[in-house]
Write a structure and sequence with these properties.
Largest sheet: 5 strands, mixed
Number of helices: 7
CATH topology of the domain at 2-94 and 177-206: Nucleotidyltransferase, domain 5
Helix content: 25-40%
Strand order of the largest sheet: 3-2-1-4-5
Strand content: 25-35%
Length: 220
């Protein structure tokens, strides 16, 4: 099975071509806006791997949480490719993709949500496959400390924020999910025939957008 995967949940844009358990080609870049880089990165993958777009079996996309604009661009690109190529869509939690690169055990995956908050989820990882323990949340760092109870490691861009409050083992210096981990987790779902509905698929924002917050504050 060949999967094209993208993740745009942080400013590190990622794209990967995956086939039968191995990476054919992968790109990861720090970007100002994903719309400037994502399609070019995808084109580079097809050229490097000598794979035609029509040969892809599914399109995978990091669903977030993360940058609202980045998530919209990533999913819009993935949906557009799905429609153009008549391929199914697989959404993967960006926090789960972060956790997937951790060693077996309990990991707290984090993404800096800015505005004094962190997106986070605690996962049990076995054989590189994360299982969410509880719910994905967005909270102030101090309120996330209980999530570390029993965790072995922190991963993701929120780690540096949490480590200002408590000294905890950080897995690596990479801030965002790897597209190859999105692809690997998507391959597991695709093997079960578990796909997302193109019409209703949406990013997992977790918290309201700025426009929604402004609307909530308006007098009724």
């Amino acid at each position: 099975m060949t999967i094209l995967a993208v993740d745009t949940s942080t400013l590190h844009a990622g794209a990967c071509l995956w086939r039968d358990g191995r990476v054919l080609a992968e790109r990861r870049r720090l970007v100002t806006t994903h719309s400037e880089a994502l399609l070019a990165m995808i084109d580079e993958l097809f050229v490097e791997a000598s794979v035609a777009p029509a040969d892809v079996d599914a399109i995978a996309c990091g669903a977030g949480p993360g940058s609202f604009t980045g998530l919209r661009i990533g999913l819009a690109t993935a949906k557009g490719l799905c429609f153009a190529l008549a391929k199914p869509l697989v959404l993967i939690s960006s926090l789960a993709a972060l956790a997937a690169r951790a060693p077996d055990g309990r990991v707290c995956a984090t993404i800096d949500a800015l505005k004094g908050e962190v997106y986070a989820g605690r996962f049990d990882v076995q054989g590189g496959v994360p299982a969410l323990d509880g719910a994905e949340v967005v909270l102030a760092p101090a309120k996330l400390v209980p999530l570390l109870d029993g965790a072995d490691v922190l991963v993701g861009s929120g780690a540096h924020v949490i480590n200002r409050l408590i000294d905890f083992r950080v897995l690596d210096e990479e801030a965002g999910p790897r597209a190859s981990d999105v692809a690997r987790l998507a391959a597991l779902r695709a093997a079960r025939g578990d796909y997302d509905d193109l019409a209703s698929a949406a990013p997992a924002y977790i918290r309201p957008s700025e426009a929604e917050l402004v609307k909530q504050k308006r007098p009724q």
